[in-house]
From TrEMBL:
Entries under PANTHER family matching the protein: THIOREDOXIN REDUCTASE 1-RELATED-RELATED (PTHR48105)
Keyword Disulfide bond: no
Alphabetized SUPFAM superfamilies for the sequence: FAD/NAD(P)-binding domain (SSF51905)
Protein name: NAD(P)/FAD-dependent oxidoreductase
InterPro entries assigned: FAD/NAD-bd_sf, FAD/NAD-binding_dom, Ferredoxin-NADP_redctase_2
Length: 308
C-alpha cells in the first residue's frame, strides 16, 4: 500500500454517515478500531420532519438523530470527514479510497453506506411537497395522515400495493391510475379493500400556500386530497463500488450475504445502498451486523499475519 501517498491510514473507512454508516462506526469505535467516516452531508430523509418506527427515537427529527450519532462516534475516536468518496480500488492488502478533491485514504477494509436516490415522477408539485404531504412509506408516515383523504399516484407498478396498504389508515383512499395498467385481479382487490380508482392522467398537484389541496387531472377535474403517496424509482448511490467490481443482481443492486459482505474481499455494504426497503432502524441494524463481521475479519487477518 506504499504506492499511494495517503493522508491517513485506517482499519476501516466508512462511506456515508446515515444510520447504517454511523452505527457501524459506533460498533467499530468501541472495538478500538481506527475508523474514518466520510460523508457529504446530504441524507436521503432530510425533507422529512420526523422519523418513525425506531424504538426510543419515534418522532425524532432525522437531523437530530444524525447529530447525536456523530457525537457518540466521536467519543470513541472515530474521525468524521466532510467530503465524498469518489473512487476506491484495491491496493496491497487493503484499499485506496479517493475523496472528491484528491485526498486519498488508506483502508484495510471498506464499508459503503451511501444510501440511494429517490427518482420522483415529473408531475408538478411532487418534488415541491416531497417529504411533507407527498410521501412514500406507509409505515413511516401513514399514521400522521390517518383518517384523511389520501391519494396514490399510479406512476409505478408498486402503486397498487401502496393503495391496498394505505386503506388500513384511512377510509378514503383514491388510486390515481395515471398511466398505470391494472393487471389481473388488481381492480377486484382494490374494490374489495374499498379503494376508489380515478381514471385519467394526472396533470399536477394543487397546492394552496403550504398545503396540498388535491390532484388535478388532465381533463380539468380536481380530486381533493390532503396527502398523496408515490413510489419513487430507487437508484443506489454506489459509485464507490463500481471500480471494485462487486457482483450485482438482475436489478443492478450489489449482492451481499447476511452481514453485508460483497463478492469482493474486504468490502461490505449496509443500509439503502444494498436494500431499498430498509428503514432507519433497519439500516442501523445492518450497520451493526456489518461492523461485527468486519472486526472479526480483521482479527482473522491479524492472526494469520502473526502465524507467518
Amino acid at each position: 500500500m506504499n504506492e499511494y501517498a495517503y493522508e491517513h491510514e485506517y482499519d476501516v473507512v466508512v462511506a456515508g454517515a446515515g444510520a447504517a454508516g454511523l452505527n457501524a462506526a459506533l460498533v467499530l469505535g468501541r472495538c478500538r478500531r481506527r475508523v474514518a467516516v466520510v460523508d457529504a452531508g446530504q441524507p436521503r430523509n432530510a425533507p422529512a420532519g420526523q422519523l418513525h418506527g425506531f424504538l426510543s427515537r419515534d418522532g425524532m427529527p432525522p437531523a437530530a438523530l444524525l447529530a447525536v450519532g456523530r457525537e457518540e462516534v466521536a467519543r470513541y475516536g472515530v474521525e468524521l470527514i466532510q467530503g465524498r468518496v469518489d473512487h476506491a480500488e484495491a491496493a496491497g492488502r487493503g484499499f485506496a479510497v479517493r475523496l472528491a478533491g484528491g485526498a486519498v485514504l488508506g483502508a484495510r477494509r471498506l464499508l459503503v453506506a451511501t444510501g440511494l436516490r429517490d427518482g420522483l415522477p415529473p408531475i408538478p408539485g411532487v418534488g415541491e411537497r416531497w417529504g411533507q404531504d407527498v410521501l412514500h412509506c406507509p409505515y413511516c408516515h401513514a399514521y400522521e395522515v390517518r383518517d384523511r383523504p389520501l391519494g396514490v399516484l399510479g406512476t409505478h407498478p408498486g402503486a397498487v400495493h401502496q393503495a391496498l396498504l394505505l386503506r388500513q389508515w384511512s377510509d378514503d383512499v383514491v388510486l390515481f391510475r395515471h398511466t398505470l395498467p391494472l393487471a389481473g385481479r388488481d381492480g377486484a382487490r382494490l374494490a374489495a379493500r374499498g379503494v376508489r380508482i380515478a381514471e385519467g392522467a394526472v396533470k399536477r398537484l394543487v397546492v394552496d400556500g403550504a398545503r396540498l389541496r388535491g390532484v388535478e387531472l388532465a381533463d380539468g377535474r380536481m380530486v381533493p386530497r390532503e396527502a398523496v403517496f408515490v413510489r419513487p424509482e430507487f437508484t443506489p448511490q454506489d459509485g464507490p463500488l463500481t471500480a471494485l467490481g462487486c457482483a450485482r443482481d438482475a436489478d443492478g443492486w450489489v449482492i451481499t450475504d447476511g452481514a453485508g459482505r460483497t463478492s469482493v474481499a474486504g468490502v461490505w455494504v449496509a443500509g439503502n445502498v444494498a436494500d431499498p426497503r430498509a428503514q432507519v432502524v433497519t439500516a442501523a441494524g445492518m450497520g451493526s451486523a456489518a461492523a461485527i463481521d468486519l472486526h472479526q475479519d480483521l482479527v482473522g487477518e491479524e492472526l494469520a499475519l502473526l502465524a507467518r
